[in-house]
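Minutes, project check-in
Item: structure for the 135-residue chain
Input as provided by the requester:
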Amino acid sequence: MQHTHEIILPEGWPTPKGYSNGILAANGRTLYLAGQVGWTAEEIFESEELIPQFEQALKNIVAIITKAGGKAEHICKMTCFCKDRDLYLASRRALGKVWKEIIGNHYPCMSMIFVVDLLDHPAVIEIEATVVIPE
């Protein structure tokens, strides 16, 4: 597989687990994604639980990227907003499994922010992404 983006890791820094500190994107088209929650294309929540909502939000992200002509590996930055820090931490192994199934071994720059609430109920997680689709 040809790498279109370069992972940036300063000398002496430990390799981060589950994210990258920096990505130098190839020339291309930039795609900005609105926050995606764990509902279907019909805006129906099939679950109120974190793991199924995380899975659906990632599928929504990949659907948008695919429509724009890109791939999950072109994601440069993600910002996740989650309502339950303790549940997130307790679910990391299962969330990692879902990540691998949908995104693969690509780990963009990420921020995880814990919030009091999200607009679309009963959302427990919302994920924004910035993607650079190579020329």
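Outcome recorded: The chain has a mean pLDDT of 96.
No further action items on this chain.
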